[in-house]
Amino acid sequence: MKDTTEILKKLRQLMQSYGPSPLAAYIVPSDDAHQSEYICQHDERRAFVSGFDGSAGTAVITADKALLWTDGRYYQQALKQLDSNWELMKDGLPTTPSVASWLACNLAKDSKVGVDPKLFSYRLWKPIEKELSGADCCLIPVEENLVDIVWGEEQPKQTSNPIITLDTTFAGMTVSDKWANVKEKLTEKKAQALVVSALDEIAWFLNLRGSDIDYNPVFFAYLIITHEKLMFFVDSAKLPSDFKQHQSSNGVEISIYSYSAIGEELGRLTENNAESKIWISPGSSYYLNALIPKKIRHQEITPIALAKAIKNPIEVEGFINSHIRDGVALCQYFAWLEQMIAQKQPVDEISGATKLEEFRSKKEHFMGLSFPTISSSGPNGSVIHYHPAQETNRPINDKEVYLCDSGAQYRDGTTDVTRTWHFGEPTDFQMETYTRVLKGQLALGATVFPKKVKGQVLDTLARKALWDVGLDYGHGTGHGVGHFLNVHEGPMGVGIRLMPDDPGLQENMFISNEPGYYQDGEFGIRIEDIVQIVPATTKHDFNGRGALTFKTITLAPKQTKMIKKELLLPEEKKLLNDYHRLVWDTLSPILKKEDDKLTLAWLERETKEI
């Protein structure tokens, strides 16, 4: 727990002395706008000012209060990390007001609320601005980040990955083909340009990736796409040595601009432009949106976001192949771990995560992890996004539930998988909750649904078995996954909350299927697969709309010892047995070829029919 007293004191002094009139409140947001210069830093800013280092949360500082909003994934973590200066606002509970509502109800008339406009998306800015206006207060852009001023010389310097090219044998499409598709969309919208600020969209469109894989293989950049030109705003020193050849093989010429020139060049595009629209996502920062006059601003999710979410045939093949290799590594780790525990050899959360990475690193096309491994034993498993650290590290043993959520980046795909194990004798309640989580996962994975149905519609299917006995979990059920890109990818998903840009589920999208249950301070259970959306055959085909279903591509056993078999229906047992047969049939020939007798014997036992 970090003492934030002096930091808050200095920040409040800056708020008091700001401009012609003081700021009554200052907002330090979560990673909302996904802006280039901030994607790796502004969650660090919030961690610096509050001590809370979870990946989602918004801090609000007033003259006498400091509040942190975060969702159910992070309640426990926030309570442990926030010192006595802070109050936790449990976002998602019906009794918790929104940031805007709290500010509107608690600030005096004519109060000013400041926020860095490069950190807040336009979509979040406008409703807060509207609610504050109704309370005779105002939201104002503060161009110089106040947290940066407080942090001073001790703030870590911004870094940016050197860039590597991704060959079309992995990417599946040339930049020229992607550009042609975007130009068609620009013509449809009568727009002259598309402004792209989301880093994964830029990387995907240009068939480039960040080389020093730090979970998300992206790099700092902006991109403006017109009918005639690709304008790439980037540190030219980070460009790969084969960038010229990359342009040639992709059939394009890319114009390079200074990273900091985005505002100036966007201003040029708007000059003397009375009719032709400039397209920008409302998920981009308020700063970028405000540079475009309202009369020529077309606000809509970018066509790149949707194209990236629907994988092309080469990307689909890569996803499937990378999950086979990843499945072998997972089985090798769990077989090794079980043997170590049986032999009373010491293994803890950190050494276990390190061993899992070692197994993965030996697989073809491995580039790094897709996120920090959630290797969590006993009560640590109840912290939904727990990451092992020296001060929290626990042994993995045969007395506690072990939850392992992990993933890898391969050149041909990105993986994300969770398995929950007990290497001794689980309690009846642990078995019941595990079984109900499994029932929900099987139900969602087997469902048939109409084309383009919103993911939110399916969420209840994964929760019903838990809801039947008054249990639930505080996170979404499914998120999109990038192709050698961000492990969490929009614009679609499955969850209780509405996703504003969800285009509906479509063939060859890949999403996670991950219900869970968390008993505070005792244990956590989550079972997660990546599923491919594929066509389904139904009697009536939804009156011609078309039917879809899920195909699980993650390949790793789900522990049958944890199942209360009397709670499973015959059709659920069949679904699990069919899945385990697929896992065995796919992975056992590889293990036999590698002469991995330990893992093969473990896999055979763990995939037996129930």
From TrEMBL:
Annotated protein name in UniProt: Metallopeptidase family M24
Organism encoding this protein: Musca domestica (House fly)
InterPro entries noted in UniProt: Creatin/AminoP/Spt16_N (IPR029149), Creatinase/aminopeptidase-like (IPR036005), Creatinase_N (IPR000587), Pept_M24 (IPR000994), Pept_M24B (IPR033740), Peptidase_M24_C (IPR032416), X-Pro_aminopeptidase_P (IPR050422)
Q: Where is the Peptidase M24 C-terminal domain?
A: 547-610
Q: Where is the Peptidase M24 domain?
A: 325-533
Q: Which cofactor does it need?
A: Mn(2+)
Q: Would the keyword RNA-binding be found if you checked this record's keyword annotation?
A: no
Q: Name one GO cellular component term.
A: cytoplasm
The answer to whether UniProt assigns keyword Magnesium to this entry is no
Q: Which UniProt keywords apply?
A: Hydrolase, Manganese, Metal-binding
Ranges for domain Creatinase N-terminal come to 8-142
User: Family, per the entry?
Assistant: Belongs to the peptidase M24B family.
